[in-house]
Amino acid sequence: MPLTGSLKTLLLRGLLAGLIAGLLAGTVGFVIGEPKVESAIAIEEAGHSDAGHSHGDAEEPLVSRGGQKFGEFLALGLSGLALGAIFAAVANAARRHTGLSGPKLAVALALCGWLAISAVPFFKYPANPPAVGEPDTINDRTLLWVAAVLLGLAAVGAAVFAHRLLSNQLSTLRVVAAVAAFSVVTAIGYVALPGVNEVKDDFPATLLWQFRVSSLAVTATLWVALGLAFATLTEFAGRKQPVAA
Q1: If you write DSSP's letter for every residue of 181-211 in order, what string do you get?
Q2: Per-residue confidence (pLDDT) for residue 11, from 0 to 100
Q3: Between the N and C ends of the chain, which has fewer C-beta atoms within 10 Å?
Q4: Residue 167: per-residue pLDDT
């Protein structure tokens, strides 16, 4: 069954799905990500102590750790709402150009969104814990991350274009062409974008790896939950509609 409903209906559906996804992602971040953050903060504080700064000389954080943990849920919840609204608007535009059913379209859009906005930027500029990174380069790193997001959108766009270009060919050939287009654009972008490595030699490699995996798990949870929640709500709404005689 194709995706039905007005834009207003889809937006409400997207907001609900986004809120669910944001809270689930916040839960994953709290359970598996917060312990890694605590460990990184402990390493950072130990470094200040070794440098000769006493505990009293250390600058007090503007927000306590408890506030930061609550803020993670709040931020991901609000991000989920915003992302859900954008997701619904994109689904409303995409349904005019595809024969996919509503649930399948939701899952496909979630996969494309994760690839473009999370996966492509992550594997070029992976997330770092609090003790890693120079404060003076934060603006440059932010701009590079935005460039990586644009690269991801371009790669997904190239994949969709290649898939639609071969609409009269075999499904397997269309998938191969889409994957090839995505890979080529991503590879070119990775080579063109400069690398960033501000990890100190003495930082534990295991902790760095665990933090990055947990960060990737949070974004994956956000997108998977968004796609599945939107698909479930779409299917539920479709069953409630009266069947034409």
Answers
A1: HHHHHHHHHHHHSPP-----TTS-HHHHHHH
A2: 94
A3: C
A4: 82
Q: Are 222 and 80 in contact (CB under 8 A)?
A: yes
Note whether 131 and 40 are within 8 A (CB). yes
CA dihedral sign of residues 90, 95, 100, 101: positive
Instruction: Write out pLDDT tens, residues 159-199.
Output: 999 998 988 888 899 999 999 999 999 999 999 999 887 77
The residue to which tokens 């490595």 are assigned = 197
- Report whether pLDDT(215) > 70: yes
Burial of 190 (0-12, 13-18, 19+ CB in 10 A): middle
For every residue of 32-68, DSSP letters joined together read: IIHHHHHHHHHHHHHHHHHTT--TTTSPPPSS-HHHH
Residue 96 identity: R
3-state secondary structure 136-167: HHHHHHHHHHHHHHHHHHHHHHHHHHHHHHCC
Cβ contacts of 156 within 8 Å, gap of 6 or more: 112, 115, 116, 182
Question: If you search the block for the tokens 């409903």, which residue do you land on?
Answer: 5
